[in-house]
Write a structure and sequence with these properties.
This protein is α/β, with parallel strands linked by helices and 293 residues long. The protein contains eleven helices and seven strands. Helix 9 packs across helix 10.
């Protein structure tokens, strides 16, 4: 599926949520990436990777082979994919899941659309997104830089049990309060220094969250670096699965739209104004599970 301009993704609506705007007493806009053909923003990155006609033709062929690999984490599947491409490089193309500038460029198209769709001369006070390995955040950071929104804070939301990005930020000097050495590391988490990007990256030994689409044992070191260096900063928030589940139910009630748990984490702070207020400062911190205000 492609549009007349050759892209695989669709320009999705940006709507003002009457319910969330009323709850928070500010204008809350929702970018409806669930309306993509794949129900995900990831079509944007894939489209940018499929720049050559042979690759586009390859993706259009019917009867694609599906290979289910053994293992638990993305890295294991990635290794298997690399082996398959290496066995027949002329006929196969490897599209990374999140850690590639070409993918970030594709995801950045979302920010360009948002700028066109917002009222004229409007700049967001903040952009919220869910985060697993960091591909979407990388696209938003790159897009904001291009459109002149590098000073707009980005708030990333993860669930406890799959918060590798939050823990990676915690391992480095940045907007967290206190000395790096005084910050506790979650049991079962190890750290590894990435020399290329000069950052420490957290590796989770197991994923305990029910938000499986966010499940990542470690984030992109490049995105961690971008977050630490960003002018507008990145404010990282961790919430319990139960809070995300309740947000999904609340959103379905208010908007008559059902979203998966990984998407619900993004809107969860909106249904808990006291948690939402935590994101307005530069100090990043995990949230307890409060009652709905």
């Amino acid at each position: 599926m492609s549009q007349e301009d050759g892209t695989l993704w669709l320009e999705t609506p940006l709507i003002r949520s009457v319910h969330l705007s009323s709850l928070l007493q500010c204008n809350v806009y929702l970018k409806l990436e669930t309306l993509q053909p794949s129900q995900s923003f990831k079509y944007r990155g894939i489209s940018h990777y499929a720049v050559s006609q042979p690759t586009v033709d390859f993706m259009r062929r019917e009867g694609a082979e599906v290979v289910v690999t053994e293992g638990t984490y993305y890295k294991q599947a990635l290794q298997r994919a690399k082996e398959m491409v290496g066995a027949n490089p002329e006929a196969r193309v490897l599209v990374p899941g999140y850690d590639d500038p070409i993918l970030w460029e594709g995801h950045a198209s979302m920010v360009h659309e948002i700028k066109r769709q917002l009222p004229q001369d409007t700049k967001p006070d903040a952009i919220f997104c869910s985060l697993g390995r960091g591909g979407l955040a990388g696209g938003i950071i790159e897009g904001c830089k291009t459109v002149g929104w590098d000073d707009v804070p980005l708030v990333t939301v993860e669930t406890h049990g799959s918060n590798c990005f939050y823990q990676s930020l915690c391992l480095n000097e940045g907007p967290f309060a206190g000395d790096v050495g005084s910050r506790p590391i979650t049991e079962g988490t190890t750290q590894q220094f990435n020399a290329e990007h000069n950052v420490k990256v957290a590796h989770l030994s197991e994923l305990l969250s029910k938000a499986t689409s966010l499940g990542a044992s470690s984030p992109s070191a490049a995105i961690v670096r971008k977050a630490l260096d960003r002018t507008g900063g990145v404010r990282s928030l961790c919430i319990p699965d139960a809070m995300a589940m309740q947000a999904a139910l609340n959103f379905a009630e208010d908007h008559k739209t059902l979203v998966e748990l990984a998407c619900a984490v993004t809107i969860a702070p909106a249904y808990h104004p006291n948690v939402f207020r935590m994101t307005r400062g530069f100090r990043m911190q995990p949230a307890d599970e409060p009652e709905r205000d």
